[in-house]
Amino acid sequence: MKYWISVLIGAMSYGILSTIVVHAYDYGFTLGEVVGSQLLVGFLLAWLLVAGLSFFGKRKRNKSSERKQEASWKQRLLLMLAGTPSAITGLLYYHSLTYIPASLAIIMLFQFSWIGVAIQAAIEKRMPGKSMLFALAVLLIGTVLAAGINHSGESKFHPYGIGLGLLSAVSYSLMILLSGKAAPRVHPAKRSAWMSTGALLLVFVLFPPYFLINGQLWEGLLLFGAMLGLFGAFLPPLLYAAGIPHIGEGMASIVGAAELPVAVLLSTFVLHEEVAALQWCGVLLVLLGIALPELAKRYRSLTRQKQSFDL
Fold first, then answer.
1. Maximum distance among all Cα pairs of the chain, rounded to whole angstroms
2. CA distance 233 to 38
3. For the chain (length 311 residues), average pLDDT per consecutive 10?
4. Looking at residue 58, what is its pLDDT?
5. By C-alpha distance, which of 148, 86, 139, 82 is closest to 113?
6. Residue 287 contacts residue 261 (beta carbons within 8 Å)
7. What confidence score (pLDDT) does residue 157 get?
8. Whole-number pLDDT of residue 66
């Protein structure tokens, strides 16, 4: 259960980002500055955590567990590569917000819920269970309702924005997949730190960090970078690295949908946007879709225990 909660909190952290990004754009900051500052803060926080754990971690470990904690250079390079989808997702999703409404961009991003399950099914060469498929159906219906695409009466279907949103869904699915597959025996804090390193390097290659020398960092960008770095580049990768190897990538794709209800709640209480009753119904459906697989798992476990007890 704790691993399920870990992934849930990571997903909820992602739901905060769109509100912060909208405000950052309003202040005149660019895509490269927003994503670059976010990943820089996440990189620093991740390595500070690793340093803190190394300094204060004086609990006894046997030799075998110690070897699991250390990453070889091959594993480090693999983790850096696994971190690049995180950067790509941010770049694609944040950029899509400049072409299409946030409600539509969220719908495009949330296609990761079925894309992730489809990718895992293809890798494992088996169909998802009935409870997983039912949860996906409930989740997708709730996503459309909660995003409120028809609430405003019209939406701007810019093809470039649609394409960016769908690509962000693919990269998000890959991020979840790689978070669970890349060097799972390495300590989650170290996995997260190396993944954040790979993401940062990619963004700095694509968008050289001129904000470090042109003064933008001290004109408000640092504040946005700190918030985005904490909730976008530090907490989610760390929590995903800790939880996904234990609950599986398919379940993580379901639980990751918790981002949407958080985004809707923030649009109501922070941005003071009107949210229709139909959207709240969608939020409830999303929450139900998230909970269904875990509830089904617990029901099956209790049924087996009862049958075993009866015997």
1. 74
2. 6
3. 84 85 90 95 94 72 50 87 91 88 74 77 78 80 71 62 90 82 81 92 95 91 94 85 76 73 77 73 79 72 72 59
4. 56
5. 139
6. yes
7. 65
8. 45
- Token output for 118: 């489809």
pLDDT score, position 63? 47
> What tokens appear for 90 in the block?
């941010």
SS3 labels along the chain: CHHHHHHHHHHHHHCCHHHHHHHHHHCCCCHHHHHHHHHHHHHHHHHHHHHHHHHHCCCCCCHHHHHHHCCCHHHHHHHHHHHHHHHHHHHHHHHHCCCCCHHHHHHHHCCHHHHHHHHHHHHHCCCCCHHHHHHHHHHHHHHHHHHCCCCCCCCCCCHHHHHHHHHHHHHHHHHHHHHHHCCCCCCHHHHHHHHHHHHHHHHHHHCCCHHHCCCHHHCCHHHHHHHHHHHHHHHHHHHHHHHHHHHCHHHHHHHHHHHHHHHHHHHHHCCCCCCCHHHHHHHHHHHHHHHHHHHHHHHHHHHHHHHHHHC
Its pTM stands at 0.78
Q: In terms of C-beta density within 10 A (0-12 exposed, 13-18 middle, 19 or more buried), how is residue 305 classed? A: exposed
